[in-house]
Amino acid sequence: MLAVDRHGSMSAAARALGVPQQTVSTRVSQAERILGVPVFRRSPYGTVATEQGRALLDASSHFLNSASTFARVVLEQRGALGSHRFPVAVSNTVAEMYFPAWAATFHRLHPESQIAMIQGNSSQVRTMVSSGEVQLGIVEGGATLHGLEEVPLGTDELILVVPTEHPWAGRDVTADELRGEPLVVREPGSGSREVITTVLGDLAEPAGEFGSLSAQRSAIAQLGSPGIIAADAVADHIELGRLVQVNTPGLSFERPLTAVRLRRAGDNADADALIAIARDNPPV
Question: Among 46, 141, 211, 254, which residue's beta carbon has the most beta carbons within 10 A?
């Protein structure tokens, strides 16, 4: 359901997941029956969360984090059983947009290694690596910590978008206008937020702060306010005419995606393999 919400339609979610559209439709219908809640409204123009569905989808990030923690504990308690655990800390945007495909490729090539993903914002991921909780982290943007090595994986672009009826739709917007307008942004400590403040400096009081891309994207439409968000997260919404990209001449919100490791850390074949996969399959 998160893929449908993220991409705005059953067909787009199916393409992103690499499964038939009917599979996605069936799974969503089954989930709605189990939950007893109509999560989506279907139409020829796409699939949009209902009010009840939005509440469930926004709450799902907490559930998924708990599920990831539970899976990690299960692996610890049952032992290796012929395989070994490979914990990776991943920032929120990377977890939503890019990591699933990288992890699937890694699992296919290295079935003996069981990835345990731990999710947080970029600042939290760097702290986990610095403390030795994990040997590898993947983040977008943000400032590095002393003692960490950062390996470039590619770049990720943030863009300014507004609802179609917003006064900014169809014209250029300046840095001064952005600084003075309440924006829909990610939470403090996220790589996205740090990129925006690095480019613009002090901002007006936000129209809203959100801990996930799906929640931020939904809020831009619901609040009718501008937002600066990962381009890949809103590509389908722009194509469907729900949101409009606004030009910001002279401003670039591009940010690096990096793998983070302790300097002088010992060899780690799993980390090297996952980094190679990510570099071979950068954001497009």
Answer: 141
Measure the CA–CA gap between 158 and 233, rounded to whole angstroms: 9
In angstroms, rounded to a whole number, what is the distance separating the alpha carbons of residues 127 and 133? 9
Intra-chain end-to-end CA distance of the chain, in Å: 23
Nearest one of 197, 158, 160 to 179, comparing CA atoms: 197
Tokens of 69: 């923690």
Q: Which amino acid belongs to residue 130?
A: S
How far apart, in whole angstroms, are the C-alpha atoms of residue 229 and residue 238?
A: 12
- Residue 216's contacts (CB-CB under 8 Å, 6 or more residues apart) are 184, 185, 186, 208, 210, 227, 229, 233
Phi (first) and psi of residue 161, to 5 degrees = -130, 155
Tens place of pLDDT for every residue, the chain, 284 residues?
A: 777 888 888 888 777 666 677 777 888 887 888 888 899 988 877 788 898 888 888 887 666 667 666 666 655 555 544 578 899 999 988 998 899 999 999 999 999 899 999 998 888 999 999 998 999 999 987 778 888 999 999 988 999 999 999 999 999 999 999 999 999 998 887 878 888 999 999 999 999 999 888 899 999 999 999 999 999 889 999 999 999 999 999 999 988 899 999 987 778 899 999 999 999 988 76
Integer Cα distance of 165 and 170 in angstroms: 10
Beta bridge pairs of residue 95: none
The number of residues making up the chain comes to: 284
Phi and psi dihedrals of 168, rounded to 5?
-80, -15
CA 279 – CA 138 distance, rounded (Å): 12
Q: Is the pTM of this model over 0.70?
A: no
Contact call for residues 259 and 278 (beta carbons, < 8 A): yes
